[in-house]
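B., you asked whether I could sanity-check this one before it goes into the benchmark set. Here's the sequence:
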Amino acid sequence: MKKFTLLFATTMLFAIGKTNAQEDLTQDCTIKYNLFKGDFQSKKYVDAFENWTFLMDKCPDLSVNIYKFGSTLAEEVKKDPVLAKKVYEQRLKYYPNDNPAKVHSDYADYLANNKLAADDEIFEILQKAYKISPRDMSVKNIYKYFQGVTDKFKDTDPKKVFDTYDDVLESIGEKLDDYAIKINEITKDSTRVLDEKEKKSLKIYQINSAALGQIEDGLDNIISDIATCERLIPLYKRDFEIYKSDAIWLRRAVSRMFKKGCQEDPMFETLAKAYAESTPSADSYSFYAGILEKNGDNFGATSMRKKAFDLETDLLKKAKYKLNFAEQAKSRGQLVNARALAREALSFNPNYGKAYLLIGRLYQESVNECGNNEFEKRMVYAAALRQVQKAATVDQSISSVAAKYIASYRANLPDTKTIFTYGANEGSSYTIKCWINETVTIQSSVK
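And here's what the prediction gave me:
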């Protein structure tokens, strides 16, 4: 009995001691965390470092700020790659659901910027980030990851390249739509003066849209060499029997062939028909309408487009369908109709820069039709320039693309000698003839 009593007492003392030790550690963790956080936020990084290392070792699950702030200490203050790796690994261990894609993406940046890992190792980390959430990766890293996929698989597995491209672009598209809705809400009343909070939010949305737009432009540049009709058509012929009931595969195949201008090949009609049959939707009907029109069924095409448009309730998607119809009209040489449809797209989304870009391209392609001499032809570029400048103004997501058109069209304006020879004056008005029928200001190119 005495032995039992002694054993029980010893056990209780141990338990009490352990509990007290845990309480002391918890208290120490809280004190050191507050000191660390205060020093860090005051940019006293050296003072913060000692308390931070204690937290990393003794209180690793106290707060995710240990890792958010600590990565700065490890990567910039101490410049210690071993410590940086520890921060990266412990954060994923103790906070696996706190923005893990961004954690992988940021760590890949650190390794690349400091030349601490081979390209293959960095690619593997980016692949982890991509599988979790492409939307949370940095612009640079999405581009870098897709470049890596293209380099690895463009010859052996082009389908993987195309699938990755579509996944990324769809993710970007969703994010761009989110920003477009917010921008449209803020700017819908052009007469209202924005408060400081609205101005700040608008600027953030526009900056983020521009960054995402750069990804689209960059990915298009990477894939343009391999996504050709010569490569796409055999690939889709080969895989059609496997995926002919797969709505996602069909949608992506039809969209890509349309975008690359492969509509004349019979395979496009096969894909568009299968898409419409497998997935009756606004999107599939809009593509199939083009097939009906190509085959001479204008009434059926018109009905199909109306059906597609009426099925959709989202204003941004309605705008996209109208622009899709405009692109189809352009491909058939129906320039007046194409402009009208692009303007309808703008009625649903006033900040839809791609609609303005299309109108600018329509004007540029009418240079010879709408001018009898060099001056008149070059003034058509003034109308085209005005449209692409509007695109850049209202839609930051296509600013980099618009900038290329702006530079090209501005360079093709009449020079001062041509303006003088025609008997005109810079700054005066000029009405462009033919179907464009717009009045623009005479301006010269920079030469």
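One thing to flag: The chain has a mean pLDDT of 87. Otherwise nothing jumped out at me.
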